[in-house]
Amino acid sequence: MPELPEVESARKVIEKAALQRTIADVDDTDTYECRPHRPGEIRDALVGRQLTSAHRQGKTMWCETSGPDGSPAPGPRLGIHLGMSGRILVAPPADADGDSAKEHVGGDYVGTGRSRGRPRKEVWFRFTLNFEDGGSMRLLDTRRLGRVRLEPDLDALGPDAAEIGRDDFRTRIGRGRAPVKARLLDQHAIAGVGNLLADETLWQAGISPQRRTGELDTAELDELRRQLRKATRLAIRHGGVHTGEIIRHRRSGEHCPRCGAEMQRATVGGRTTWWCPKEQQ
């Protein structure tokens, strides 16, 4: 599933290329992606409005909208979840030329060979905003696991992993008996960490994913938070969580790039987990 860095790339694309463009039509006919809304329900709510801002908390992304016909009164909130393979594609106005005529793409390991050159079957476009200027914003989702909804519930999310403060992190992560990786993956505790980002962070911090959260001392918790913020920033800068230093070594027969020990595999928090048994204690 796209993790915080991939969702942030999609948010930036919306912020850069899709705001303040009047919505002329909406394709919300995919009843699975747009559940629980009926076909036409999102369309009726958004036509004539504009996206005014794009936001993210963890892996959850949403856009604020204007009142009808661009009035300053706030409109409905539009939530977009990328699922496991979702990408946001924003097409420019019909009369754009030069650099302004380029399509903007965000999400699902953007900027790498994993997303370049993929075929784009029309059936994979699950949701579309068509703008009055002839451009569009579309959700491409090959596996149909994304979600578009009005007024998404944001109350259950923990603080964003890229922004959480030291004291809040200590309280939310350093309690109980759960394995530390499982706690990092708990979106109610802290929002945005997925499987790969958790493995990268724990390896960088030298902490076993199987350690019990209540056993971590203050220094270990502070180092874990520092490494999480660092890994998140680097992943955003380099194009996704797959660019982490340990990620390419997460398979059988691979070795820790620091000490050479053979990587170890187990299931922690319901997810396949790799770590260095020598350095991560």
Would you mind describing this structure in some detail?
With 281 residues, the chain is an alpha+beta fold. It has helices spanning 4-17, 41-46, 166-173, 180-185, 195-205, 218-238, and strands at 23-27, 51-57, 60-65, 78-81, 86-91, 104-106, 125-131, 136-141, 147-150, 264-268, 271-275. It has 2 domains: 4-150, N-terminal domain of MutM-like DNA repair proteins, CATH 3.20.190.10; 166-275, Helicase, Ruva Protein, domain 3, CATH 1.10.8.50. Helices cover 23% and strands 21% of the residues. A 5-stranded antiparallel β-sheet has the order 1-7-8-5-6. Helix 3 crosses helix 6 (218-238). The longest helix has 21 residues, at 218-238. The radius of gyration is 20 Å and the shape is elongated. The relative contact order is 0.15.
Secondary structural class: alpha+beta
The CATH class of the largest domain: Alpha Beta
Query: What is the first-to-last residue Cα distance?
Result: 27 Å
Strand count, sense and barrel status of the largest sheet are: 5 strands, antiparallel
The largest beta-sheet arranges its strands as 1-7-8-5-6
Can you give the helix content as a percent range?
A: 10-25%
Number of separate helices = 6
Give me the CATH architecture of the largest domain, please: Alpha-Beta Barrel
SS strand fraction = 15-25%
* CATH homologous superfamily assignment of the largest domain: MutM-like, N-terminal
Shape: elongated
Radius of gyration: 20 Å
Number of strands: 11
Low-confidence stretches: 110-116
**Number of discrete domains:** 2
CATH topology of the largest domain: N-terminal domain of MutM-like DNA repair proteins
Average residue-wise pLDDT = 92
Helix and strand pattern: HEHEEEEEEEEHHHHEE
